[in-house]
């Protein structure tokens, strides 16, 4: 494998630090969410954000798009949204007597699918081809989407009325599902003060260009991961499928389906990206453990017994991380 460039690494590390600084001008706290969004950006992976209203999910994504100077489209998912509202449609041109393609808002670099679970399955499935194949078909013509292409979706876990749970096949296409938590008391005081100040400026500077993003992606691919850590990733994923083989009898009664192969792929990629942003050219076991929750929490399907006993996916992941050893 080609060695990672030390000079480029230092340059990229400084630019990532500047991205955090620019984001902090608008968004108070939420460094964890920003970190996961950057991991998705640098590994070509989509991210699903879940949290109650008012936690700056939408603001964070739109601000990040400004800092990256990428084409950004926010799509508010509603029950009456149609697939054509997302990808586009064919329109008849009376002057020329021909049908023309009218492209939808999905033709951008960063797509914010706001409250994605408010639209029915046919609209959600319209995202599938775009997310997986990076292309859209309108009529008989297929259009390649511009690179980079990233879908960042938000959903509200509180309101269940008028919502449509995302199909497992679609959820699995998200690299990570990130739970966004409340700010601390000090952060909330700062938020309150900023919003009450009518002179607050939302302007941020552009830090990363498309060339920078592709350069970082290329460098992330060169981050080294040992064979023992590759084996560790596989053991973690297999523990979700065959928990009894790993002496996880208590968790076995709650797991209906284990994680898919996408979990292995994305654990590897996200651990590399995290290591790179931390300033290393190699992956540590802690990197894998750090991203395990976000990569696996939406890929492990629990049964009704888990719901009855109030067992969460995160509880199962914690038990797996505590039980599965790192093989030499």
TrEMBL record:
It comes from Chryseolinea lacunae. Residues 46-176 form the ATPase AAA-3 domain. Residues 251-319 form the ChlI/MoxR AAA lid domain. This is MoxR family ATPase. It comes from the Bacteria.
């Amino acid at each position: 494998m080609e060695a990672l460039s030390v000079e480029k690494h230092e340059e990229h590390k400084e630019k990532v630090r500047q991205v955090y600084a620019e984001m902090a001008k608008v968004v108070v706290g939420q460094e964890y969410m920003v970190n996961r969004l950057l991991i998705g950006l640098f590994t070509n992976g989509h991210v699903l954000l879940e949290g109650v209203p008012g936690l700056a999910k939408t603001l964070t994504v739109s601000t990040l798009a400004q800092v990256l100077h990428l084409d950004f489209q926010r799509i508010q998912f509603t029950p009456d949204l149609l697939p054509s509202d997302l990808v586009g449609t064919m329109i008849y041109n009376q002057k020329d007597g021909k049908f023309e393609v009218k492209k939808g808002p999905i033709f951008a670099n960063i797509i914010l699918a706001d409250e994605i679970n408010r639209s029915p399955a046919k609209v959600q499935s319209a995202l599938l081809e775009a997310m997986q194949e990076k292309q859209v078909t309108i009529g008989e013509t297929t259009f390649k989407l511009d690179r980079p292409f990233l879908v960042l979706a938000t959903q509200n876990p509180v309101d269940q009325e008028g919502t449509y749970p995302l199909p497992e096949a679609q959820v699995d296409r998200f690299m990570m599902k990130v739970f966004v938590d409340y700010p601390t008391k000090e952060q909330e005081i700062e938020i309150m003060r900023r919003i009450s100040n009518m002179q607050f400026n939302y302007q941020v500077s552009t830090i990363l260009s498309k060339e920078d993003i592709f350069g970082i992606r290329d460098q992330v691919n060169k981050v080294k991961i040992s064979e023992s850590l590759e084996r560790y990733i596989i053991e973690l994923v297999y523990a979700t499928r065959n928990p009894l083989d790993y002496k996880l009898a208590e968790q076995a009664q709650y797991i209906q389906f284990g994680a898919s192969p996408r979990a292995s792929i994305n654990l590897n990629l996200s651990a590399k990206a995290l290591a790179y942003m931390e300033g290393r050219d190699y992956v540590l076991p802690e990197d894998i453990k750090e991203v395990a929750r976000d990569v696996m929490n939406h890929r492990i399907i629990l049964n009704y017994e888990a719901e009855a006993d109030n067992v969460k996916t995160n509880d199962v992941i914690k038990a797996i991380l505590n039980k599965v050893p790192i093989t030499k």
